[in-house]
Write a structure and sequence with these properties.
The chain has 3 helices and no strands. With 119 residues, the protein is mainly α. Keywords: Membrane, Transmembrane, Transmembrane helix.
């Protein structure tokens, strides 16, 4: 046996092992990329969920922006109302402090019997 024959046998064995490795790898890749059962299906489902979540997030952002604008408007109205109430209370307070004090008189009603007796 010569050295070249031994090298040829090792090269043949390496080629057979490489082809077997490629065959096993191709089968694994086929299972990996199957859309129904493998990782490809999981990736497709996750991609669809990401799209759904993105659209839901955009809708939530629009709703939140609208609610924020509405809240700002309501807050402004409440502040204006509070200022008006403060002015009204201050003017009412001023009116009660500056008004002249009159003694309170009790008003008596005459009964009908006393009116008839007077006539």
């Amino acid at each position: 046996m010569s050295v070249t024959f031994i090298v040829d046998v090792f090269m043949g064995m390496a080629a057979i092992i490489a082809s077997l490795y490629c065959f096993i790898l191709s089968r694994r890749l086929k299972r990996f990329n199957q859309l129904e059962h493998g990782m490809g299906g999981a990736i497709a489902v996750l991609s669809a969920q990401v799209d759904d979540m993105t659209s839901a997030l955009k809708q939530a952002q629009k709703t939140a922006a609208g609610s924020a604008q509405q809240l700002v408007g309501l807050t402004d109205r409440a502040e204006q109302g509070a200022q008006k109430l403060e002015l009204m209370l201050a003017s009412l307070h001023d009116m009660t402090d500056d008004s002249p004090r009159r003694p309170h008189r009790a008003v008596r009603r005459r009964s009908r019997g006393s009116m008839e007796a007077a006539e």
